[in-house]
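Example (one chain per record):
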Amino acid sequence: MNRKRLMVKNFSFIWNGLIHLSDGSQWTLVDPAREHDVTWWQTGDVVKLDHRRGAPLLRNLSRDESVPIVSASERFLELAA
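Predicted structure:
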């Protein structure tokens, strides 16, 4: 039986508007109406990346809250010449 394993990530911290996760990824909160506040999330809160209507969503499983996000930086592989 093949089951998808839940890739558990943890919230690390938020600094200068960037959300940092334990896997090293950085995300920016998409919140033009300022409805969401993640500054009170605690280091170690369990989070999961989801999608809603094609847009990435960060779900804090510890606090039962979801916030819309976008990737803060795209990683590119560059070869040395």
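Caption: The chain has a mean pLDDT of 81.
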